[in-house]
Amino acid sequence: MTFSRSRLALLAALLIVGLVILGFLYANTQKHQSPAPGTNASPTSQGDDEDSTDGQDTAAGTAPTVAAIPAGPLPGAAPAVKTVHSPGTVAVDLNLTAGQCKARTIDAAAGLYLPDPACTPGAVDPAVTQDNLGSTICKPGYTMTVRAPASDTDKAKALSLAQYGQTRASTTEYDHLISLQLGGTNAVSNLWPEPNRAGANGTTNPKDAIETRLNKAVCAHKVTLAAAQKAIATNWVTAEKDLGM
Fold first, then answer.
1. Which regions are flagged for Polar residues bias (predicted)?
2. Across residues 103-127, what is the average pLDDT?
């Protein structure tokens, strides 16, 4: 009888140890499969101009409202690209009013929107030239040296959303029309709330990849800086085609 009780006690102890181990393995598996609190389960890569309206979201599951009109030929000549030197801060070079601006829609489902040219004609930094590409936009880390901090852009974002008649959404990028990696600058005339494609999880959008490819083309001397700046300011959707790329 003593032997049987000892044997049962040993088996019970082994069973308890086994259950503890299984519980630990299960908990560890769940920890690695679940996203950390407050993070997106499907993170996206960051582009040169990623600057979302995060923290100003609409209700969960609600798409942003976009005041937009179909894109078409512009009446008269498009406003000229401005020249503004404003590293590290947003220059208020245009005074816009709420509801004054309308994004232009090419394909909403694909996220192909253009800014209002009267409100966002684009602006370049005169400190970036064809002769100093190697020490500016073609130098790794350049954009971080000129980007305006969130403390400066947060106020500009809120104003821009109102000016463009848009609701707040974490998928909307506060975008440099002429990107910093193409010599664009931090100015109201070069910044706008760019709506994203349907179902987007973050601010990464189709324009980001085009900006990067244009930067590589300029740095490889396949196109001139001025030509790339003009093309993306005029119509970023057709910029590569317009440049013969």
1. 32-46
2. 95
Separation CA 1–CA 222 (nearest Å): 91
Q: What is the pLDDT of residues 172-208, one digit of tens each?
A: 999 999 999 999 999 999 999 999 988 888 989 999 9
Using alpha carbons, select from 209, 181, 180, 205 the residue that is nearest to residue 193.
205
Amino acid at 175: D
Rounded CA separation 114/138 (Å): 26
Give me the residue label for tokens 């700046």.
Answer: 229
Q: Can you give the pTM of this predicted structure? A: 0.74
Q: Which residues pair with 194 in a beta bridge?
A: 173
CA nearest neighbour of 64 among 205, 211, 209, 176: 205
Q: Is the pLDDT of residue 95 over 50?
A: yes
DSSP 91: B
Show me where the domains of the chain are located: 84-242
With 0-12 / 13-18 / 19 or more C-beta atoms within 10 angstroms meaning exposed / middle / buried, residue 197 is: middle
